[in-house]
Design brief:
Elements (H helix, E strand, L loop, with lengths): L1 H13 L6 H41 L4
Length: 65
């Protein structure tokens, strides 16, 4: 995620170009939505891994969580 944040910071610094306020807002909104989607995907991967670990633990312990 650090690499993604660097890209976003670099992008914000490039917004000093003479764009209209509306254009800047559209870009910022797009970046925010993209970052949120990336974070959701990352969390889904961790959730799947966590769920798999719980299932393995249930097998070894013989109980369900």
């Amino acid at each position: 995620m650090k690499k993604d944040m660097l890209v976003i910071v670099g992008y914000f610094s490039s917004l000093s170009d003479p764009l209209t306020k509306e254009h800047k807002l559209i870009h910022i909104l797009f970046i925010t939505i993209t970052a949120a989607i990336c974070e959701i995907e990352r969390l889904k991967r961790y959730t799947i891994l966590w769920d798999a670990e719980i299932r393995v633990a249930e097998k070894h312990i013989g109980t369900t969580f």
